Amino acid sequence: WMYATNEGDVVIRRATGEKAIVNDFEYDYYTATDTNTQAITPEYFAENDKKYLMLIDLTGEQKEYIPAILTKEDPKVGDNWTNTHTMTYQGFNFDLLIEGEVKEIIPAMTINGKEYKNVVRVYNKLKAKFILNPQYVDCGDATMYFCKGIGVLKTQINISISIFYNRSYADSIIDYHLEY
Fold first, then answer.
1. Which among 65, 11, 20 is positioned nearest to 46, based on CA atoms?
2. Which of 6, 57, 66, 173 has the most CB atoms within 10 Å of its CB?
3. Which of 128, 131, 134, 135 is nearest to 162 (CA)?
4. How far is residue 170's CA from residue 22's CA, in Å, rounded to a whole number?
């Protein structure tokens, strides 16, 4: 899968065919290569109980991953789920909550000149609870678009965790090639 990003990069995601154990769970190991810098980032995906999962590296340090449900098998508008995780960043502990929901099934969607059918749009709200604040506060959102048999088509992420971390990121598929 080849994606163009809002940061001017082209990223190639490859399935390695290898398995990896992360936090005592088995994932399919992928790599994402930035074609400008040739930097390779590990990525982890899995299917569990008809849910598709990904490990998210919010900090980019490749040390602490947040498990997140991306979508479900045979998704329906209104399907929803939550992910929770506790993490440490710059010495501070956070409880994270990701609330995901299938917002729509788009009959046909054109991305970078190519049409995709039955595209699933999933919206995720990111919330965090800090030590000094017992209530969850909004920290951003992510919208992802999926196509069965292809995978992730498009991602839009906006994260704002107080003064600690802020990022807006987007990518969209340019091309893909699948081998079975």
1. 20
2. 173
3. 128
4. 26
